[in-house]
Amino acid sequence: MRNGSLLPRMVASSSSLKLQDLIQEIREAKTEAQEREVIQKECAHIRASFRDGDPLHRHRQLAKLLYVHLLGYPAHFGQMECLKLIASPRFTDKRVGYLGAMLLLDERQDAHLLITNSIKNDLSQGIQAVQGLALCTLSATGSAEMCRDLATEVEKLLLQPSAYVRKKAVLTAVHMIRKVPELSDIFLPPCAQLLHEHHHGILMGTITLITELCERSPVALKHFRKMVPQLVHILQTLVTTGYCTEHSISGVSDPFLQVQILRLLRILGRNHEESSETMNDLLAQVATNTDTSRNAGNAVLFETVLTIMDIRSAAGLRVLAVNILGRFLLNSDRNIRYVALTSLLRLAQSDHSAVQRHRPTVVECLREPDSSLSRRALELSLALVNSFNVRAMTQELQGFLESCPPDLQADCASGILLAAERFAPTKRWHIDTTLRVLMTAGTHVRDDTVANLTQLIGGAQELHAYSVCRLYSALTEDISQQPLVQVAAWCIGEYGDLLLEGSCEEIEPLQVEEEEVLALLERVLQSHMSLPATRGYALTALVKLSTRLRGDNNRIRQVVSIYGSCLDMELQQRAVEYNTLFRKYDHMRAAILEKIPLVERGGSQVDEEAKESKETAQLSEAAPVPTEPQASKLLDLLHLLDGPSGDAQHPPPLDPTPGGALIHVNLPFAPPPPAPIPNLKVFEREGLQLNLSFVRPPGTPTLLLITVTATNTSGGDVTHFICQAAVPKSFQLQLQAPSGDTVPAQGGLPMTQLLRILNPKKAPLRLKLRLTYNHFGQSVQEIFEVNNLPVETWQ
Amino acid sequence: MIKFFLMVNKQGQTRLSKYYEHVEINKRTLLETEVIKSCLSRSNEQCSFIEYKDFKLIYRQYAALFIVVGVNDTENEMAIYEFIHNFVEVLDDYFSRVSGPSHTQASPYRAASPTCFQAGNQSSRCLC
């Protein structure tokens, strides 16, 4: 190997450069440029060698090319060489050829299909090593067509005497099933036999094959459910046999196979009582007997827990599973705690009470330094909050909120607020909790928190004084948390008088001067940290205080007039309006700025501004009002109809009681979408049919459009077709021009004619039709009244 | 199911990569950079499982080398964790003195035949 470096580089015998020599050369390159140079030179030699077609050294050239490809250099020109090498009878050629095929000839290459034939030949050759190579390549890069072609070959190899070949055949079968699920019919039968294998490799492959089959085909699933006892037996042997060096990892006998079998049992037992029952004992045995001092044992135990959770297991078994997870939580290994938290979260829905028992441990995990663990712990804690533990849990969660990383703060805050909403024991507690969250993580809460809180406070009349005092103290300390400032400003505006009284019995009495309150609000207005929305709140609060405070309003008026020239549109508008309120409408000010009445949640929005909420209150009162004048208009209409009935030929049979009429007649300002009116066949004679279709355009309730359609299924044409119509006097009728006067025979193009009928009095429709036409050499005249007119045509 | 298998050194260079589902070349580099970044930024205090897009990443550090396996969510993370160690032990047995590449040393990983990772599931423990 060392001799290679002694040979002068210029000698053109590099076609015999061995792979190891090339690697050596590349390693000796000091810089990337040098490496590239060496490789490019070598690739040129390789290309030349391929062109010359030297069969002896082809495999060596390709090996070098593959090495270069591993380093990331282009190697596509070696694709055809792979094919040649695969087709060669020598094993050294085939080996490199198949390796090259796996690396260079994936499905997207055109040359890919060309290896199918070679593989087919090699599969049936009977030499193990060659069969192994072919199977390897097939399982790594077999396309769907190749799989279909070669499935039967592979199936034959599944029952070969050689374990080496059987193992590779099973792996190839797994790949084929993944590519072409329809091949499951071919691979289903051998599985039963393969389950009797002793060779763990083949057994593992078989279990995987069965798993893939069951996942893709319900027929296979049913078929393999019969094998559950056998699988149980295999797993049992694994668990109970003593130490076996060949398959043992950390004292556990082939944990990978155990995990695989457990996964298969999970799939088979899902939603199937009988299979689940067969597995119960085994699962309990595995759960109790597995050595959990090392990771391998824990992996098996974890898979067991997952299986218990998924099948129809006995209640005792489920409790066992939850307890195992609880034990995992106490383990010092972080990985195990992570999987335990994830699984408990899934169980929290179905086995809530069992998971509750581990609540203290879960809460402990909140204090983890690892963010993925604390995130899981947070989700699980939120899922475990119920009305019994809400106080304790909220305490813990708020502690967590104060110290958690920013990306978790939003989730934590909204989680606490949601829990508080659902389980709050008292209103005061709820307000306290929300306040505390706002003070800790105000910037991360959801947008509707402000609205919710103001509504909460507004609705709890007995707590007004308490809330405003607490909010005031919070505000004096910190005006940077926007949601808090907004709520506090609103509160002070609304309940400023209570604040000044200072007589709240639940907290220490607060002596507040009017000037202090005004100064605070002004500070909020002027602070650069305040958002425009917050400023709006503060301004309105100031104005509201003008009625609540006893002193004169000069200071307030001053501030408000300053903001009349503010650059922010919203503030400017408000300030100007409030100014006008002071100047021109001072007599109305007290009424307008009264305390807001309680508004229903979810109805009209809880708006912070006194004016706007007053307006919405007015709107909600006004809404029922418009319907009344409409109703009275309807009554007038009915009187019109009832009155001079002599005009109409037929008196309208309307129900004279207003209540009944209100139900039947549509309110004009809210037209419902018109239901389609069924067509009506009105006339048939010797193959000539007349159909009426009706349309009531939604915008004009008195209009009815009728389309008369004449179809002819007889042998003779209908010519000189004329249709005339007559209606009662109160109606107006317009006949539009027909599409033609001939209706061709044998179902030819039908003739249509549109009738427009205006029915201002909503009288019941009566329609008489007169038809004249020539048919089969005879002239026909028909006069008839249309019966069974649908009610929707005139109502 | 295992989606990909990476061996990455501390400087962020990919030493070995095998994808079991086709991923475009340029997307591969992007994926690898992001995966490496998340693994390198973890401290010893944190667990070995990371959630990345719709994969789960399970990684293990061996001196200057990270082995990262990307799986979908049907896999048992702890079994994969054990599998990584099994893989390293096999390499150690097969090639002896497994270590990361330096400029003067021939890297055993470079010569490793990819036929070792032929099937993207745990049964690939039966190596050729």
Characterization of the model:
The complex is a heterodimer of chains A (795) and B (128). Chain A is of the alpha+beta class and 795 residues long. Chain A has 35 helices and 10 strands. Chain A has a 5-stranded antiparallel sheet with strand order 3-4-5-8-7, with no helix packed on it. In chain A, strand 3 and strand 4 form a beta hairpin. In chain A, helix 11 packs across helix 12, helix 14 (255-269) packs parallel to helix 16 (295-310) and helix 15 runs parallel beside helix 17 (315-330). Chain B starts with a strand and ends in a 33-residue tail after the last helix. Chain B has a 5-stranded antiparallel sheet, sandwiched between helices. Mean pLDDT of chain B is 75; it is low at 103-128. Chain B is an alpha+beta fold. In chain B, 27% of the residues lie in helices and 26% in strands. Chain B is globular. The A-B interface holds A 23-24, 27, 67, 70-71, 99, 102-103, 106-108, 132, 136, 139-140, 167, 170-171, 174-175, 200-201, 204-205, 208, 249, 255-256, 259-260, 263, 295-296, 298-300, 302-303, 306, 334-339, 369-373 and B 22, 45-51, 76-79, 81-83, 86, 103-106, 110-111, 113-115, 118-119, 121-126, 128.
Brief digest:
Chain A is of the alpha+beta class. Chain A has 35 helices and 10 strands.
Basic shape of chain A: extended
Low-confidence sequence ranges of chain A? 1-14, 603-671
- Quote the beta fraction of chain A: 5-15%
Q: What Rg of chain A, in angstroms, do the CA atoms define? A: 44 Å
